[in-house]
Amino acid sequence: MSMQKQLSIRDGACRPITALGYHPSRREVITGCADGVIKWWDIESGKLSIKAAKHSGMVTSFLYWEEAKLLLSASNDGTVLAWTTGATIYDKIEMGRPVFSMAINLRRHQLVCGFKSRIVVYPLDENRTSGHIIRMSESSTDRRHKDIVSCIVCHDAQIYTGGYDRRFIVFDTSSYPKENGLTAVQCNSSAHEAGITALLLVKESENTRLLTGSFDNAVCIWSQDGQLIQKLSFSGVITGLCYASCVDLVWIACRSPFATLLEPKSGEIASDFIDTFQKIETGPRLERLLYLAENNSVVGTAGHNHVIVWKWKKARSTTVLQNRQSVDCLAYTMKKPILLFSGHSDGSVTKWERMNSSNYIYSKESFKICEHVQKAKSQSHSLKPKKNTNAGEKSPGAKLRRSKSSDGTMVQDKQNEPSSFTRFFGNSSLKQKSVFVEELDLLALSSENGRVYLWGFDDSLSSIVKLMPNQSSVCPETRKKFHFLLDQASESQSKDSSGEEDNPDAATNRVSGFSCKKVLLGHFQSVSALAVVGKGSPYNTVFLISGGWDRRLCVWDLKKGVLQDTFSNADLENWHEFKEVACDGAILDLAYSPKRNEFAHSSSDGLIYLRQFSPVGREMKLINVMRGHESDVTAVIWHHSRSQWISGSEDSTIRIWSENGMQCENILFTNGAVGCLAFDHFNGCILAGVLNVLRVYDLDSCLQVQSRHGHTDTIRAVLHIPERNQYITGSSDKTIQMWNTYSKSPP
């Protein structure tokens, strides 16, 4: 749901464009030029429909009068023309001096015109009883401006003006015709360091703000009563401002090929998180901007003769997070503050947190595994390697020497590790799967080097913060000693007070660093599947099931941080090379059903195996084998609300299975290989990453109800965050994208 370029018009036969407007009745964009020519352009096709040369000087401003269905054009030739819907002149008003800006005060039924060193207010007369559409004899004038009044905005009974004299003035208007119609209630004579070029009103549900742009390369944000709130600096002169209410963003033109996007709620620049201009580097400079509320579009002029239209696309992502490497997996925390984790192909983990006052802006913190794994290595756990697990192939893990640690578990001998971390943490160390364990505040990440990394928050600092007294009761001397911790605790608590009420320890546990706590060693090849057995299971601990290319299944006790057991074929009494092999192909995905205490693992052999879960490897009884896919089964999930297994494959199908795995109940054809699956926790729809497209399927009708385009490479991971009504996707194109959820129409 972002603004995307819809149309570009290049008018090669015109003087420079000096004014921009829109005619709602004709659905046409209007441009005025330096030679007085006015052109009407169809907003859908971009074709020129009408050309008129009725002004003898530069066109300076356009204004549409909705009540009378008239378009007003102003010029420095001293005239204002009123145009009918048929593009004929309804009225010509000689103003006696150049007109530089116009606005209509709907509350007072007035036309406000900006001249050099003055503004004049005229009562409107749509029936032309006085001879014109305005009653010129009843005008009110104010001469507080000392130079050209370049911009005017009206809101309720107030009139806001900005001029080349650097002045920003707030006027109140009178409803009594015999009294002076203008009263200056606030006059800032030095609002900017240079002339004001643009003025914008931003009206939200809770706040009303005004923005001014200037030749001094700055944008100032003002309260409704004319008080300065914030000042932002830019690299060029501010030539245009508009507020796109459909995405709650202010567009700022500052002599560059792209607009800068400002979020008025937070006062922060959000351009890096919106894909509208992320790929634009060169082109004509944007000059003027205009938002069209009726069709959620932004129109802009660029250079001397370009007109560009951007349109709101519901199917596009709302936010884009850029990364330096491919995004291979995603996980998130349900506790507040909500954190998003992404694993990348370079062996790094990134923690993302959205600004509390923003809908777009995220802070990020990246962690390299090689920088954290040394600390965790003394706590790494594995079983002693056994004989070859794959026929005809020696397991790489079998060559590793192991020794016992102080607690009796097996750890890898340091003398056999490579001298450089590059061998283990280079490009071959892809994070293929991740899952966040809410009960333990742990992030489990799998890797191609056969390891599972457990990441957690800094226990020591969070424990100190918990023991610290409330800031209000801390004496000055103590505050001075512990000011660093106090500041961090205060910042964490202020990020989301409502979340702290629900869980007082949620924010405190995450007050500081994030590090690799343990490295789980039990696989000999890439670990490509993870599943948590926790909440809702019949056990009093939390287990992690892992599977990979060595075809083995490992069960880990996460509370103790040890390997509980590995799958063992009960039919093979003595040692056999296939005794710990759970399937014929590599294990690609895992899913656990708390309702049935069963788990499914999909395989590259085209099958899904359904097993009874048990912490004892010999008791992982095979319940059923789901057959039907014709290629690698890349994803499998348990649909909690429908009690069904869902699988996706490279054969371009999604299959819906009964809860006992005995029957394939439906087949969805996806027109592309399925890379990942998830489901919408509210409406039950299936989310599928199909090549580079996110597809949404309604299981009631078995039809695709949405397709979301925006990625340029394969989607590797997909999530639904119900707390924010968002779908999240991670892709090989090095981006994470957020999408608005699909809403079913009421029956």
TrEMBL record:
PROSITE patterns: WD_REPEATS_1, WD_REPEATS_2, WD_REPEATS_REGION. It comes from the Eukaryota. The keyword Magnesium does not apply. Residues 377-392, 406-422 have a biased composition (Polar residues). WD repeats lie at residues 10-51, 52-83, 626-658, 708-747. Residues 377-422 are annotated as: Disordered. InterPro entries: Quinoprotein_ADH-like_sf (IPR011047), WD40/YVTN_repeat-like_dom_sf (IPR015943), WD40_PAC1 (IPR020472), WD40_repeat_CS (IPR019775), WD40_repeat_dom_sf (IPR036322), WD40_rpt (IPR001680). PANTHER family: F-BOX AND WD REPEAT DOMAIN CONTAINING 7, WD40 REPEAT PROTEIN. This is Uncharacterized protein.
